[in-house]
C-alpha cells in the first residue's frame, strides 16, 4: 500500500471540507455585519462578502497546496496519522486565525460605520 497517496488523499479531502465549511459559515454570518457597515446597501454588502470568500479560498487552498508535499517517510499507518495530524493541525490553526482576523475587521469596520452615523443623529 502506498501510504503517501493515502495521506495526500485524506489530507486534501479533509482540508478542503474544512475550508468550505468555514467559508460558508463566514459567508452566511458575515453578511449581517457587512449590511450594517454599508448602511443597508445589500448589493454592496453581498459583493464584498463574495470577494472576501474568494480571498479566503485562495489563501487557504494556496497554503494547502504548498503544505501537501511530505519529505519524510510514511511507512506505516502510524506515520500516516502523525503526518495528517501535523498538516491538518496547521490548516485548522490557519482557518481559526483567519476567522478571528475576519471578526476583528468586521467589528472595526462596524464601529467606524456606527461612529459616522452618530453625528448625523444629533
What does this molecule look like?
The chain has 122 residues and is an all-alpha fold. 87% of the residues lie in helices and 0% in strands. It is built from three helices and no strands. Helix 1 runs antiparallel to helix 2 and helix 2 runs antiparallel to helix 3. The mean pLDDT is 87.
SSE layout and pairing:
Blueprint: H1 3-37, H2 42-67, H3 77-121
Helix pairs in contact: 1-2, 1-3, 2-3
Q: C-alpha Rg, in Å?
A: 19 Å
Helix content: over 70%
Structural class: mainly alpha
What's the total helix number?
3
Order of helices and strands: HHH
Primary descriptors:
3 helices, 87% helix, 122 residues, mainly alpha
Task: Please give a quick description of this structure.
This protein is mainly alpha-helical and 122 residues long. It contains 3 helices and no strands.
Amino acid at each position: 500500500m502506498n501510504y503517501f497517496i493515502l495521506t495526500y488523499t485524506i489530507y486534501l479531502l479533509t482540508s478542503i471540507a474544512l475550508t468550505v465549511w468555514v467559508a460558508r459559515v463566514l459567508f452566511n454570518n458575515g453578511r449581517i455585519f457587512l449590511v450594517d457597515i454599508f448602511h443597508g446597501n445589500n448589493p454592496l454588502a453581498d459583493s464584498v462578502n463574495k470577494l472576501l470568500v474568494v480571498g479566503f479560498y485562495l489563501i487557504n487552498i494556496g497554503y494547502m497546496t504548498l503544505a501537501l508535499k511530505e519529505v519524510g517517510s510514511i511507512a506505516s499507518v502510524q506515520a500516516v496519522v502523525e503526518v495528517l495530524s501535523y498538516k491538518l493541525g496547521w490548516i485548522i490553526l490557519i482557518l481559526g486565525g483567519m476567522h478571528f482576523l475576519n471578526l476583528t475587521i468586521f467589528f472595526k469596520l462596524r464601529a467606524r460605520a456606527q461612529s459616522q452615523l452618530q453625528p448625523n443623529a444629533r
